[in-house]
Amino acid sequence: MMVCRFWGVIFFTDKRGAEMRTILLIHGYSSEGRSTNRSTIEKIYGDLPQRLRSISGIGNVAELDLSRWISLEDGVTLDDISFAMQRALESDEYSHLLQYNKGFHAITHSTGALVIRNWLLNHSPKPSPLRHLIHLAGANFGSGLAHVGSGQLARWGREIFDGREAGIQVLRELEFGCGKTLDMHLQLLKEQQHLFDVYKVREFCLCGSQIPKSMRKLPIRYVKEDSSDCTVRTSASNTNLRYFTVEPQESAYRLSFKEARDQHRRRQRGWSLSSLDYVISGQSIPGMEGRPLVPFGVPFETAHLGKDYGIVSGADSWQYVEPFIKAALKTKETDMADYNKTALQFEKLTAETEDLASSLVDIKRSLFEWHPRRQYEAHAQLIFRIRDQDGRQVEHFDIFLKSVNVLRKQTPIETCIETDHVNRYDKGTMTYYLRTKEYRDGSFQDKLFNLADLELEISAHEPGTDKILYLPISVTISGEDLKQFIQHHQTTLVDITMLRIPSDDVFTVLKDNRN
């Protein structure tokens, strides 16, 4: 067994079975512990390295620990961590991993998912030496605890009791609706940066939906949300991002300030608006238009952490996590048909989780308990990011989701909303959390099966002057089309360009008629 430390990173590598792919283990935020010895590594990963060898026959495992201080120093950013990872991989001992003919697989936990996706964009060659990327509860689209964790009280608690900082820069990139994080994921959808076709990486995601009993008593919403593992929502872990854009039509740019003001006043009075000024101009949907569906699964009774239910080191949860990891590792690297087959296998295993949840015995309700099946009711995230035509954030806005012409047994989508969150730094971004399945009559019922038509209305104002108006948005989406916007265990990002119109007084031209 060889040990190497480089740039705050610790590796352990077993040289047996060198003909097999190396597996790189990357942990998440604040998991590094107080020391950098072997016992700390074992505490973070538990028996996972040994279990990986036993299920796959792989004898060459490289464990990557982001070191004691990397994620918890307030001045350290996600870019710093990814750069440090690249420097470590370029060391003499591990530079062979960057060779495409050698390559490696990676298994990430929590924030480690963002670290390696950021590494891919900023440092990896194309195609990448990274072949299979397996996310265990990856915080790809944020964590509610990032909002709680960066609060002043949480910072004081860390410094008083742990003697550590809170890692403010990393927490910012973990907050729901972080613009930098969203843009990172969008980059990997672009033709020249496509994860599957350009980098040749096969990605897999799994996230539990179990809440440890010890955490249910905490007065923090985000540690006991349904469809969450007490830290990461299933929909936030799933990289199958659904993406849409809404833009003003060309004719809207020719509206006079008076016409825009009339629309603004109509919105203030609750009257109907013109639905011709804006249009849904683009979309990117997983499983369509050349985008493969990333295998995603929800293992039964699996939480974010803990020796019993933790997704990395849980003794009891391993029986449910193992089939997903085994299926991912056995997927052929260059065979897209086999990759699609694995996606179906993940769906089947998730359906088995719902069956197991359905068979749970009801528990006695108390102040700190609830129906045990509710935590397996699927949810989705819906993010609206509003900017003007020059790319500036629109900070003062209102979003109205209003179902219209609702028929019997149809679901108004606004009734699915559980909570919302405005990003503190990207104030033009709102994240909604929606319950998309409901346990009823002995099974999990799909709330998205029959959706009512939706009117999406957005208004905004510029508090600094009355010489600027935002043209209000009104877009009607049919119930059938709405199913393309929202899906179980997935995140949807809607990028909106809102037209900012100046008054004629802002710039005036007069003829000089003097002789």
Task: Describe what you observe in this structure.
There is one protein chain. With 515 residues, this protein is α/β, with parallel strands linked by helices. The protein has 13 helices and 21 strands. Helix 3 crosses helix 4, helix 4 crosses helix 8 and helix 11 packs antiparallel against helix 12. The longest helix is centred in the last third of the chain and has 23 residues. It starts with a strand and ends in a 13-residue tail after the last strand. The N terminus is likely disordered.
Summarize the structure.
By secondary structure, the protein is α/β, with parallel strands linked by helices. The chain is built from 13 helices and 21 strands.
Question: What key attributes describe this structure?
Answer:
515 residues, Rossmann fold, 2 domains, 21 strands
